[in-house]
């Protein structure tokens, strides 16, 4: 009995500090944001007035909100499959032992340790049509350089390319960890049966990575919904609002226009959207299992 009580106290000693920090910095701000969304709250004067659901009704008739939300969805739909597929491809290519594969893993993971400001500085220069590497490559091929960051047709693609280079290494590492859990004897038996690489991938690798794939998909969807830094530094939401995402609009509403209540309402809607998409994905994965 004393041993059990001592064990419980030891567990509580480690868990309680984490729970306290989590409640203070995660749960409390969430409820505070929901509370603020029911007020006309001017951040500059700290004055607030209860207005009920008016912030939400304003949101659903706000064209900038809808355009920003659709831009965010566009980024999620285009970037998520690309980041997952590329991360999986690199993991398969560089899985195993050997100094070369270890070097390639390090090279492809290295950009992930950069800050968003460093990443966008690099790619802002790369996308420069006059001085950048992509512009120089276009001129070598005899083509006109593409104005990636100022052309509405290419601006979102530029942000996706920058994000792919920056974050694909993290997905690669997660998939590499998943590949280590697949029994090598399955591939040996498959080779004896004369199966090729594609058959191994479909019937052994993908089923073995099912849980990892679910995890990477959920994490990637959440991260893509929270896109902000690359957009704000590279394009400022332009040209003509074609790359303005919802978090940028929330930021501008709260800290430029000082409308904290309206910004909180939009942030809560974004949270609900991320939660619902994640739950749908997990439910679909459970049904397939």
Question: Layout of SSEs?
Answer:
Elements: H1 2-36, E1 39-42, E2 47-50, H2 54-59, H3 63-93, H4 99-109, H5 116-126, H6 133-140, H7 155-180, H8 184-192, H9 197-208, H10 210-225, H11 229-234, H12 246-256, H13 260-288
Antiparallel strand pairs: 1-2
Helix pairs in contact: 1-13, 3-7, 3-10, 3-12, 7-10, 10-13, 12-13
Describe the fold and architecture.
The protein has 289 residues and is mainly alpha-helical. Helix content is 73%, strand content 3%. It is built from 13 helices and 2 strands, in the order αββαααααααααααα. A hairpin with a 4-residue loop joins β1 and β2. The model has no long low-confidence stretch (mean pLDDT 85).
Query: How would you sum up the major sheet?
Result: 2 strands, antiparallel
Tell me the radius of gyration: 24 Å
CATH architecture: Orthogonal Bundle
**CATH C-level name:** Mainly Alpha
- SSE pattern: HEEHHHHHHHHHHHH
Uncertain regions: pLDDT < 50 for 5+ in a row? Answer: none
Count of individual domains = 1
- Number of DSSP E strands: 2
What is the fourth-level CATH superfamily? MetI-like
User: For the terminal residues, how far apart are their CA atoms?
Assistant: 41 Å
Strand order of the largest sheet: 1-2
Proportion in helices = over 70%
**Per CATH, what is the topology?**
MetI-like fold
- Structure classification: mainly alpha
Helix run count: 13
pLDDT average, as an integer?
85
Shape: globular
- Beta fraction of the residues? under 5%
